[in-house]
Known about the structure:
Layout: H1 2-66, H2 76-80, H3 83-92, E1 96-103, E2 108-113, E3 132-138, E4 147-153, E5 159-164, H4 176-182, E6 188-189, E7 193-194, E8 201-208, E9 214-221, H5 223-231, E10 239-243, E11 249-252, H6 274-277, H7 281-289, E12 297-303, E13 306-315, E14 318-328, H8 329-332, H9 334-380, H10 395-423, H11 427-442, E15 446-452, E16 458-465, E17 468-469, E18 495-500, H12 502-508, E19 518-526, E20 532-540, H13 546-549, H14 551-595, H15 602-619, H16 632-644, H17 654-657, H18 670-695, H19 700-728, H20 735-745, E21 748-751, H21 761-767, E22 777-780, E23 789-791, E24 813-816, H22 819-823, H23 832-850, H24 861-866, H25 888-903, H26 915-927, H27 933-941, H28 944-952
Antiparallel strand pairs: 1-2, 1-9, 2-3, 3-4, 4-5, 6-8, 7-8, 8-9, 10-11, 10-14, 12-13, 13-14, 15-16, 15-20, 16-17, 18-19, 19-20, 21-22, 23-24
Amino acid sequence: MRIYVLALLLALLMTSLSVIVVVQFNATRNMLIVSAEQLFARASSNASQSLNAIAEKAAMAATLVSKSALADETSLEGREKSAAMLAEILRQDNAISAVYMGYRDGDFFLMRRITAGQPGTARLAAPPDSQFLLQTIMRDGPSTPSQGRYTFYDSSLHILQDRIEPGYTFDPRQRDWYKEAINTIGIHQSDPYVFYTTGELGLTFSRQDPTGSAVAGADVTLAQLNKILEQDRPTPSSVAVILGAGDQVIASSEATRERAEGDSATAASYGMPPALANAGKQALSDILSATASAEVVSRALTEGQQRWRIFAQAFPGSSAYRLVIASPESELTAEAERIRRHLLYWCIGVIAVSIALALVIAHIIAGSLRRLESKAHDIGLLRFNTRHKNRSFIVEVDRLGLAIDKLETTVQRLLSVSKALTSEEDYTALLDLIMSSTVEATEARGAILYLDATDGKLEPACAVMDGAHVDIARIPVLDRQQRQHPAMATAGTAGRVSAASRAEISRWYPDTIAAEDFTLVRVGLSDRKGLRLGALLLFLAPSENPERDRADILAFTSAISGLASSVIETARLIHDQRKTIFGMVELVASAIDQKSPYTGAHCQRVPVLTEMIAKAAIATTEGPLKDFSMTADEQQSLNLAAWLHDCGKVTTPEYVIDKSTKLETIYNRIHEIRTRFEVAKREAEAHCWRDIAEQGLAGAGRQARLDRLAQQWAELDADFAFVAACNTGAEPIQPETIARLNSIAGKSFTRTLSDRLGLSWEEEARLARTDAPALPVAEPLLADSPNHVIERQERDKIAPDNPWGFTINVPTVLYNRGEIYNLSIRRGTLTDEEFYKIKEHAVSTIRMLDKIPFPAHLNGIRYLAGAHHERMDGNGYPCSLDARELSIPARMIAVADVFEALTAADRPYRRAMPLSRALSIMASMRAEGHIDGDIFALFLTSGACLSYARANMKPEQIDAVEIADYL
Length: 967
């Protein structure tokens, strides 16, 4: 047997090594080709990004210049004031070679960077240390010849030389960049061309100024693309080029420029890679035409004795530019050849050593196989978890293989059921999976799963027979009257096998399961505490001796019953916990809605609307959201976040939410002020009668004093009416209104009682800031006193480096209840401190939810719930997030929140808004960067808007709307 083992090992070794060498070489070669393709894709991405970056900066420069004061200047002195701005633009980006402005009257104003060795600059005769050149052309009138001027500056913009250039004649109005810009809205980008002054290849970006009096332009060179191509070559001998329109080479890793100083502009050129240049027009055309798919094109070409690999691809998002790289295949696959040689050397060495080792191994195997034979039977009975599979013509190895085959079959069945049970999360689907997996693994005809209910009953949860589901409503519930039923006879996890006759099947399951003879396998299901969870019945083909013939199935079923019990118990707990969580969330939302009549059922309707928008986004197959999708966990997170989006309002005082007048807190303080005016009137009356009595006034004198009292009363009545009108907040407050309030505050009444009695400790602390005046004391009818200011505690402050990223501005004090301060609110009834308190609910929402230990898949709830007041333009709160930072689900909640708030008909402070008005407001909010335009458009076009309106809005609110008007 040792000879057989030795020969077998050597044969296997030789075969394996041969396969390894061949497979490794091919895999390495293919991997290197794929790696080269990846390098090419990266080079294409780098070149595309670099070209896009150059274009964005140049477009920004042209836009900046077009909107600067340079466009409106008519004199050279005035225009020279913008030289520093143009020089700074050139400093910011080396790719921008010149920025300029061409005017409608033919004037021209250009700032150019001068660098050492720059092509074409020798003719400029620039003095030493020149960094910038200002080229200007000025015309005094339509018939006046233009005057060209060169002004050279150093790096600090000190003038080095200023000279007239008679030969510098140029009319910008005749240039393509000028003509195209005045006919283009926004930025015009030219095709690549050679610049006249420097001979460099580049692009021009031009834009007309807002008044139409001039055109700004920026020239950019493409020279840095040459460096990128040179750095991103896959191999040292590779040649990379970028092709533009008409297959013009606009950049090359070789950067060949065959032209002499002073040649015409058209002489500048780059070389095509030799492998492509010599391949013929048809081969080149085939390769370039294949780039239309925007994917990497890889072709092999042979030039002489050299085989080349050609890579080509159109730039992402711009088919006008294509990157082509030609690399020698010998360089690309050099590593594969080296690895193959090393593998051959190693194989020879391994074979030599293996021959010696095989003799020792053969001896060991022969003895080991006999010892493992008996052990394999134990493994087949699930006593061990070892996995082996090896069939051989050797008797000992074959016996071991048969035993391990049996083990493998059993373990595969067990693992299949275990994996299925532990991976399913849906409770109903889990029960069905338990049934189907167990039936498949045991090859049973059918099965019924019972779960424990109240009063010792067993209720059917799932049933399968002959591959089809059985309606569990037709399967009777088992109670104590059916004690003889096999399922009721199970106890713990102990299983039993028994025969069931046709009569028993007919009696237990009339008109549900075909009346046949079966072998029943029944296993009890128990939880971790040993309490019964239910029972599992398996219906197998009948057997003369079921206890003996079905022992293996019983062992398997009993083995998985514990796992099934644990999974069912866990699933029940998770299912009940989810119901509890959702119940608590809905409870909190309902409590918030009931806290104030001003919120109506807002927290209950926003989740409904959010879900409608999310389903529409998932279902859409076109537009910006066509690739949007959500997992079940993500949908659950979105639903919970929508329910909890206003949970922070529990921290907002009701009197702030419900504040309908400026002086309102827990009560309307206008009543205090009315009392002061009443006191002032009584004091005036008392003074009047005292004067009459003391001075003995009678007749005309007495009447004059009473007339004066009437005038005082009229003034006080008018002042109070004015204060009361200010309190309502119905009209915007003007400066003259504030002046009159301060004037009224100058009037006083006499207080004779201490204001330090009968106070809470908090009021006493605020009044202690000032000394108590001696009584009686004259007090103003209106006042902003220190005790009106409630300081903000440290716990209410938000640190700049807070862990939640809050950027919301927090007022210095918590509340300022000063009477003049509140009455001077310019619009509405809320002070800055109270308006922050309203906005603070978003902060509180995130803070409150941050304290809840959500599962990992629900961790995003706190930020989804707290972002509904963020804006797409970054001007929202509490974190100033913008479109780049707001997820699509967060934007959905924001749109739902706004629409529900606008259309709610249960707000006591305003009438129900019609649908058309609400959509008009939201369209304006979209235009202002408040809400996401794509979500809003989907909300309208998907029908979610009208569906929600019909279900939740009053019929009189749903007026005729044309959806297209709001897109």
